[in-house]
């Protein structure tokens, strides 16, 4: 079985465990958020990549995207917010799994929604809209996708991609430990230092890193090369 086939199989059969209480039911609509984990499947080298963003420095938090009254579900929230932030059409995403919610440091229930980019729909829809980011030279599938995405500068500073398997590797991983006023450990956070295919440096940590590690574990059916952080230990920044 190819890597892509195995990843799709693992994600499609995944069912998030329901806690006590069910976080998605316990939180009111105004305390719920959805975040899209948008995957790019590159069959040319049997690899899986994830679309990521660097948040605008003017935003206080990156704790998912809150539900609107018009959202029918948390999936609708994740798709709508991603469309508003980076011009990714909801119709170009095939949702394949919904993951266990996490509680942010601001007490928001954040549900990861994992979806696969449909290349045909994506490029057709954005070709019809005649939008292209000419600052990126299309020479790989990921760069061709990036060339069609546009950051809403009020919310997003940069858009980039990373291999999903990167979030199971120890080479660029570290753990940041936070201490209280009495010297006790209050929480921990995964940190990944990442250089993309254009040489840009990014730091991926906190809630984003926590979610990506968990999704990668499920997708590839194995544990990371490093010790994981539990939901109770982790910061959800």
- Low-confidence runs (pLDDT<50, min 5 residues)? none
Strand content: 25-35%
User: Mean pLDDT score, rounded?
Assistant: 85
Helix content, binned percent? 25-40%
Entry summary:
The chain has 237 residues and is an alpha+beta fold.
Plain-language structure description:
- It is a single chain.
- The protein has 237 residues and is of the alpha+beta class.
- The protein has 6 helices and 10 strands; from the N terminus they run ααβββαβββααββββα.
- The strands form 2 sheets. Strands 1, 2, 3, 4, 5, 6 and 7 form a 7-stranded mixed sheet that branches. A 3-stranded antiparallel sheet has the order 8-9-10.
- The chain is globular and about 60 Å long.
- 35% of the residues are buried.
- The mean pLDDT is 85.
